[in-house]
Amino acid sequence: MLKVAREKARQLGINVKFFKAEAEDLPFPNDFFDFVISSFVFCTIPNPKKAMREIIRVLKPSGKVIFLEHTLSDSFLINMLFLAPLELILRPLIDDSTTRETHKLVRKFFRVEREESYYKGIVRFIVARPLW
């Protein structure tokens, strides 16, 4: 992904730095970013609570975080017939959890300003600010 991003930035003439880091241990100072964007990553983070705390740490007090994540569905039937069997396949292959409730975890760390739910809650778009 970094190789593709670097090439795309080069093609577009954009001067940008790319970093590879663990979400639970970000290499940035406190209060560094105006925005943090998380796009389909919380399904694979080993310690999601620690990653949420890191987002808060690097986010400026006036900052926002945007999540686009797949989560447990609002539909029991979809969870049992689709997400649970999919997790049996993806967990051992790529350590991906299709049944995480990231949308609920977000509320423990952030004040949700906007939430959109797609495909019966399998995909959620959330805009939030730190609770402080």
TrEMBL record:
One of its GO terms (molecular function) is S-adenosylmethionine-dependent methyltransferase activity. Transmembrane segments: none annotated. Pfam families: Methyltransf_11 (PF08241). Residues 1-67 form the Methyltransferase type domain. PANTHER family: METHYLTRANSFERASE LIKE 7A (PTHR45036:SF1), METHYLTRANSFERASE LIKE 7B (PTHR45036). This is Methyltransferase type 11 domain-containing protein. It comes from Pyrococcus horikoshii (strain ATCC 700860 / DSM 12428 / JCM 9974 / NBRC 100139 / OT-3). The lineage of its organism: Archaea, Methanobacteriati, Methanobacteriota, Thermococci, Thermococcales.
